[in-house]
Design goal:
single chain, Dna Ligase, domain 1, mainly alpha, two-stranded antiparallel ribbon, 360 residues, 12 helices
């Protein structure tokens, strides 16, 4: 073969190789950017990548979930783009027909699916456990039921597969940290001496009003009564003695007000033995630094809030107005409920206001 013919053959081979390379690159680019598989159900697919998974395991997980067509193509694309070093563990939502490029970008972004559970202020441990048990992304059972009042009401971010017990422990740690922060800021001369007693009183304040602006004033009433040796006479404490943290679903009966339980503050002096709910930050702050006030009584005002009074006679007048509203709403017969709480408020509407008020 002549030199010119050899040269022509080499050039032809190079041209073919270049054309083949261009074709391969074009195919690879098309595969990288074209639509991926249709989601098997709905508009997206949720996949979970475990912590520590390598690119091969991730590719297999994605292929098994039907998010990508080829585990090999994903692995090669991730290595060529350098994305294999930045893929992050977590739970991801991949849109139907997402391209390989979109999948890699999603897994590199760290924009994981986020889950939240909320424990409302004033909810009991029993109710908090119900919330956690109903959350499908959590796993396991709650091994140790926490003490009443030991959970901080808040919204918590949780991960799929996290245990319910670990979430409980996070809530307890948050409450402990809050108490450690607030206890040193307390006012002098309070009628209680331990953080546990403060949480107990805060839980009563939390259950007495759903209006944040009223919490300091309600706290002041209870602090004043404790200082004077008056019974707290708080309806929510009676309810807790009956239900242990579940909603009563009706007003209190006269017989229940008269019944002695460890939590019935119509019958016992001072604070009950435990909190009756999990108080939030504002309620705890209110009992640790209550405003100066002469108020000793409060009763529902018929609008969702309460009206306060420093004297028993003023309180009787306020009770009479509330009872008129109450009678118009719920007739009283026999041992039927003697108190119907106003709509949109917790089932606790009065202090020292039984069916027939008596002197304190």
């Amino acid at each position: 073969m002549s030199r010119s013919a050899l040269k022509a053959g080499v050039l032809s081979g190079l041209a073919t190789a270049v054309l083949l390379g261009i074709a391969v690159l074009a195919w690879a680019f098309t595969s990288y950017t074209s639509d991926g598989p249709q989601a098997r159900q709905g508009d997206d697919t949720v996949v979970t990548l475990r912590s520590g998974a390598g690119v091969s395991e991730i590719a297999g997980t994605l292929a098994e979930a039907g998010v990508i067509r080829s585990a090999t193509a994903f692995r090669v694309a991730a290595q060529l783009t350098g994305a294999d070093r930045g893929l992050r563990a977590g739970e991801y939502r991949i849109e139907s027909q997402a391209s390989l490029a979109d999948v890699i970008e999603t897994l590199s972004s760290g924009h994981v699916v986020r889950h939240f559970v909320t424990i409302p202020e004033g909810w009991s441990v029993a109710q908090a456990i119900d919330i956690l048990n109903a959350e499908a992304v959590l796993t396991g059972e709650i091994e140790t039921v926490p003490a009443e009042g030991s959970l901080l009401p808040d919204t918590y971010e949780v991960a799929r597969g996290e245990t319910r017990q670990s979430v409980i422990e996070r809530m307890q740690a948050a409450q402990s940290a809050l108490i450690a922060e607030l206890w040193p800021t307390r006012a002098q001369g309070l009628p209680f001496s331990t953080p546990e007693q403060a949480v107990t009183l805060a839980s009563i304040v939390e259950k007495e009003t759903g209006i944040a602006a009223e919490r300091p004033r309600v706290a002041a009433v209870f602090v004043n009564r404790l200082r004077l040796g008056m019974r707290l006479e708080s309806d929510p404490t009676i309810i807790y003695g009956i239900t242990q943290g579940r909603p009563l679903g009706r007003g209190l009966r006269r017989s229940e007000i008269d019944r002695h339980t460890a939590w019935n503050t119509y019958q016992i002096p001072g604070l009950p033995p435990t909190p009756i709910a999990n108080p939030g930050r504002q309620a705890i702050e209110a009992v640790l630094n209550p405003p100066q006030s002469q108020d000793l009584f409060f009763v529902a005002d018929g609008t969702g809030g309460h009206i306060f009074a420093p004297t028993y006679q003023q309180h009787l007048d306020n009770v009479a107005r509330w009872r008129a509203i109450e009678r118009a709403r719920t007739p009283v017969q026999g041992d039927a409920p003697v108190q119907a709480p106003p709509p949109q408020t917790p089932p606790a509407a009065s202090v020292d206001a039984p069916a027939t008020p008596t002197a304190p």
